[in-house]
Amino acid sequence: MSNPTAAISSEPESSSSDSFMVLWSITAPQKTFLADRLPDYKAALGKKSLPEFWDTLFEDWFKRWPSKDDGRALVEEQLKSWMVTNNRWHITTKQRKFLTDRIPDYKSAQAKKKLIDFWPFLYMHWFDRWPATEVAPQGLVEKKLKAWYNNNVCVTASARQVLNLNKPAKRTRRPAAAQTFCKVYWSKPLPDGTVLRNTIAAEWVAAWQKSKKFDPQIDVPCVAVNFINKVARCIFLKQLPPIHEEIEQHPDQLKHDNSEGSPDPGDEAEDDEVKRALEYQAAIDAIPFSIEQAGAQIFKQSGLISLTMVAGPDPKQGGNLLIYSYPYGLTPSGQSFIHHTEDFKANFEDKFHQFAKMVF
């Protein structure tokens, strides 16, 4: 399952960093409620009795947090997504050492573009030590192993570009009216009582269920930026004149300079939005290598170690609020600040994530 962690987009509001789809937030009591039932979920997986588990889970959930009938199906989809995503694969200290010891082989294969030869070798030795189980089948573990290397090895073949931090800012253009409409009415009820974020969520789930890639055992993917733009534009066009007038007078529509005779953006602005998202994504992909190089130069020229943290909407994840931490500097035993610090995620990343949600 794709991991719809974090929150959606820099324009609409952000949700929590839990594993709910980007269009749904989760409170601390709800997270505790679900976490307490993870053992039951794992047991139901082993006994192949998931239908009974879901019935019980939904009944207990809606007793505590009632939902309108038209929103119940979406909530049930999200509960399933949370359970599947948070039934995560955890590695032991020995397994982490096994993977870490093979990072040089991974980098070498990556540089030679021969990862196709690296993976079978890795899988063979892994399953010799830790055979696959029903709860952690071989196919799932292989995907997790690939994800581990992608997340723990900064330099990748697609991320060797370095950010140009001295590039002058471009003049901004007026966003499409539908994009301003999406920002204004993301969580605000429309005259007919519907909420844009809920409508988009429902349509995304419906589109996913009709797609060739649909699998009831796979989590609902994150909503794509172009899908949000498309649905928001269709809904905006159906609105009555007062809504159109409100959007036309919104500061976002008035503050940008269109004095050079350029046409009203409309569809062109929507294309610009997609282009801008692609530019952002290219820069985001370059961040790991860029920061690694910066950390190396800082250490080489000043003897100082560093810790860099970045957060913000990620177009590749449908606008999810991502957060990355990049340490430079190791202890004699080979530990970075992240691995040396107890509860680094809770003490640093989670707090930075909360701050980032206020920014975006």
TrEMBL record:
Highest rank taxon of the organism: Eukaryota
Location of the region described as Disordered in the Swiss-Prot/TrEMBL record: 250-272
Basic and acidic residues biased stretches: 250-259
Name listed for the protein in its UniProt record: Uncharacterized protein
Protein species of origin: Pleurotus eryngii
